[in-house]
């Protein structure tokens, strides 16, 4: 009888695990920032820029994933930050994963799902408007280190030396912040 109870408990745990969802890259993230200076040379002259950027390790985008295939076509995730603020995102879901979810980028047209500290994630996976799977999990974002990048020198075309965004994008793309 004890053996049957253990088997039932294992079977229940396995089926509960199979119906859960989470982020493809896990539940622990680290926010990092980078800064450095670069001298840009153009036909109009030379100019030095101070550049800074931020990121999230292991990634700034992830997907909502399930262990087993789900007959669904969309998802909704809501993050409740430690401050009580709630951010919701939705999109397409197919098979075992969603489209990419912006975790950390903030622009005029985008807002990040996560914030520093503990984030409670509530999710719904749906077929049209019918919820076929739902649940919650927690994601932690810790403050990482500030990385000072080596100084750089780049040649730019035309008068693009005046555009700090272009110069800094080129600076980071060329790998001046790699170890």
Structure in words:
Helix content is 15%, strand content 54%. The longest helix has 17 residues, at 2-18. Mean pLDDT is 89; it is low at 1-18. The protein starts with a helix and ends in a 6-residue tail after the last helix. It is elongated and about 60 Å long. It contains 2 helices and 11 strands. The protein has one domain. It has helices at 2-18, 164-173, and strands at residues 21-23, 28-42, 45-57, 61-62, 64-70, 74-80, 86-98, 101-102, 117-127, 130-148, 152-155. It has 179 residues and is α+β, with helices and mostly antiparallel strands.
Which secondary structure elements does this structure contain, and how are they paired or packed?
Layout: H1 2-18, E1 21-23, E2 28-42, E3 45-57, E4 61-62, E5 64-70, E6 74-80, E7 86-98, E8 101-102, E9 117-127, E10 130-148, E11 152-155, H2 164-173
Q: What is the domain total for the residues?
A: 1
Sketch the major β-sheet: 9 strands, mixed
Q: Can you tell me the overall shape?
A: elongated
H/E order of the elements? HEEEEEEEEEEEH
Helix content range of the residues, please? Answer: 10-25%
Count of individual helical segments: 2
- The residue-averaged pLDDT reads 89
What proportion strand?
over 45%
Counted beta strands:
11
State the end-to-end distance.
59 Å
Give Rg in angstroms.
22 Å
Structural class: alpha+beta
């Amino acid at each position: 009888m004890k053996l049957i109870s253990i088997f039932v408990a294992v079977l229940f745990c396995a089926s509960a695990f199979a119906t859960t969802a989470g982020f493809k890259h896990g539940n622990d993230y680290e926010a990092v920032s980078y800064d450095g200076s670069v001298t840009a040379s153009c036909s109009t002259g030379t100019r030095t820029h101070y550049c800074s950027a931020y990121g999230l390790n292991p990634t700034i985008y992830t997907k909502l994933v399930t262990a087993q295939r789900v007959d669904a076509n969309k998802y909704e995730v809501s993050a409740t930050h430690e401050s009580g603020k709630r951010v919701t995102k939705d999109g397409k879901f197919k098979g075992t994963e969603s489209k990419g979810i912006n975790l950390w980028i903030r622009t005029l047209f985008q807002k990040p799902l996560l914030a520093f500290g503990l984030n409670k994630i509530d999710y719904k996976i749906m077929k049209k408007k019918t919820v076929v799977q739902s649940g919650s999990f927690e994601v932690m974002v810790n403050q990482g280190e500030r990385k000072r990048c080596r100084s750089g020198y780049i040649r730019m075309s035309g008068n693009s030396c005046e555009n700090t965004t272009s110069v800094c994008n080129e600076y980071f793309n060329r790998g001046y912040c790699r170890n």
